[in-house]
Design goal:
The complex is a heterodimer. By secondary structure, chain A is of the alpha/beta class. Chain A has ten helices and ten strands. The mean pLDDT of chain B is 92. In chain B, 33% of the residues are buried. By secondary structure, chain B is mainly α.
């Protein structure tokens, strides 16, 4: 197809124009003397749904914190659209944590209008009168969609776990981020509710054409949702000094939605598990 | 059933709560009665009637010398000092506490200083305050402020630092500025704890108030107690102590009520004392 429109351009330059959404080059991450990540290089195209699995303590959450700019890598560079990643969290990257994702002192509706209040509410970040009513109208549809319209005046602690995470996802998407980071978002939910959340998330992913990174403990979940599965593990191991080497990406599996492949067993993916 | 799993009914709770009060009152009445058997004019443990009469006189009979109703002028003086002092202390605690808890630069420059100041026993600087501010209201208010504010600052700073980092990051990803985070995230999460800090600060606050009044004053609840001590007037002192305790109790309950009304989300978790 591109040949028809781009006959004048040599083939080499076309390969260069496709800038990956996120690129990591030679990332190493140390906490004091404890090496968490090492030799990590990765390039992710826009629109990917990367699921991240790995044993506990293999740097999955650290990886997410790096993408969020909550932490700065000890060595290496992270590029966003070919530019260096901003040094602090910004609205172009949304986040859903397993806990503490929504604000407990605000009702469901207030949690959702907060983003527009930050945008136009001046230095107090608060809207009054008509502008507040407009903001409430703007989130009415979202409330309906996530099934929280009836619960809009309740506080998060009065909601079930599934409702809280639906609210957290909706809140993370308010600024229409191009990248959504999910840190075990469904870890605390019942299996039945998880399936509903998967459908919600996949729908939003397609609708908003985002790039998603999702950390999960559940390999079948990672297999079901992702277009690409990244497996974090420690390849090198020093029995006398377990903290000496960090984890890296050991498997980078493209997942085809149409295949009926079964999710691999954990023992197939995590070499370090076998050592223990 | 294990005792920790027993649920008490409302009437049981009320009865058990009242028991220690009634026991102490009964003990006093009996002891007072025994002492007055020997000496009907005993001053140490006056009867309830004598105390009631004295309290009535302080509250509703104008003082011969000044023409004031002493209980009310004393109460007004004391509450004024306590209110202004605690108001200043609370404001300092909020502003400095949030700065220390939220802004790394403020934490590095102020936290060690506040921690040191909070270790000075406040009564030891009372003479300095009298010399600098004179014997008027300013020195008494300053004692309350200096005695309570540093500890309140530290507890508020800790409250701010205990706000889960996830929430602050979430606010950043929603595009909040530092001021917006202070107004919409830090302040609302801190205010209910500020009320708790104020309730706890009032305990030493009362001590510093009564101490300052006892040492140099011409009015106030503490002044009165130490004045009538010279005449062994237990019939005035005991009702005054009871009155002060009642005031402290009412203020504490009002603050708890305020917290429950203003921050319902904070009290969803369960019982609060």
């Amino acid at each position: 197809m591109s040949i028809v429109f781009d006959t004048s351009t040599p083939d080499t330059s076309e390969a260069e124009t496709v800038i990956p959404k996120i690129e990591l080059r030679g990332i190493m991450m140390d906490y004091d003397d404890n090496r968490v990540l090492e030799r990590l290089s990765l390039s992710v195209d826009a629109g990917s749904f990367c699921t991240i699995v790995g044993a506990s303590g293999c740097g999955k959450s650290t990886f997410l914190r790096l993408l969020l700019s909550q932490e700065v890598p000890t060595h290496g560079r992270i590029l966003l659209d070919g530019e260096p990643l901003p040094p602090e969290p910004t609205p172009d990257r949304g986040i859903v944590f397993q806990r503490y994702s929504v604000f407990p002192h605000l009702t469901v509706e207030e949690n959702l209008i907060l983003a527009s209040e930050f945008e136009t509410g001046g230095f107090t970040g608060r809207l009054f009168g008509q502008s507040r009513l407009d903001a409430r109208d703007a989130v009415a549809q979202t409330l309906e969609k996530i099934g929280l319209a009836a619960a809009k005046d309740r506080f998060p602690t009065q909601l079930s776990g599934g409702m809280q995470q639906r609210l957290a996802i909706a809140q993370a998407l308010l600024k229409r981020p191009k990248i959504l980071l999910l840190d075990e978002p469904f870890g605390a939910l019942d299996p039945g509710i998880r399936v509903d959340m998967h459908d919600l998330l996949l729908g939003l992913w397609e609708e908003m054409s985002m790039t998603i990174f999702m950390v999960t403990h559940d390999i079948s979940e990672a297999f079901k949702l992702g277009t690409r599965m990244l497996v974090f593990d420690k390849v090198r191991h020093d029995p006398d000094n377990p903290e000496a080497y960090g984890a890296t990406i050991t498997y980078d599996l493209p997942l085809n939605k149409n295949t009926t492949d079964k999710a691999p067993e954990p023992s197939e993916l995590f070499a370090s598990q076998l050592r223990n | 059933m294990r005792i920790i799993n027993r649920k008490l009914q409302r009437r049981e709770k009320l009865f058990m709560g009242a028991t220690p009060f009634i026991a102490v009152l009964l003990l006093y009445v009996v002891a007072s009665h025994i002492r007055r058997l020997d000496n009907p004019a005993d001053k140490l443990l006056p009867s309830l009637e004598t105390m009631g009469a004295s309290f009535w006189r302080m509250a509703f009979v104008a003082d011969k010398r000044s023409g004031d109703l002493l209980l009310w002028t004393d109460t007004f003086d004391s509450l004024m000092r306590l209110g202004v002092g605690m108001g200043i202390a609370t404001t300092i605690a909020l502003v400095v506490g949030i700065a220390i808890g939220f802004i790394p630069h403020a934490r590095s420059s102020l936290a060690p200083f506040v921690a040191t100041i909070s270790l000075i026993p406040p009564i030891t600087i009372l003479p300095i305050l009298f010399i600098v501010f004179g014997l008027g209201e300013a020195s008494k208010i300053m004692l309350i402020v200096l005695g309570t504010a540093p500890v309140m600052v530290r507890s508020i700073a800790q409250v701010v630092m205990d706000i889960p980092r996830e929430m602050i990051i979430k606010a950043e990803t929603l595009g909040a500025s530092v001021w917006q985070m202070i107004w919409r995230l830090v302040l609302p999460q801190t205010l209910p704890r500020l009320i708790t800090a104020l309730r706890l600060g009032l305990v030493p606050g009362w001590i510093f108030l009564i101490s300052a009044e006892a040492i140099a004053s011409t009015g106030g609840l503490g002044y009165r107690i130490f004045l009538v001590r010279r005449y062994l007037a237990m019939d005035v002192i005991l009702p005054y102590v009871f009155w002060i305790t009642l005031l402290a109790f009412i203020i504490d309950r009002l603050l708890l009520l305020l917290s429950k009304r203003a921050f319902p989300w904070h009290h969803l978790g369960g019982e609060s004392l």
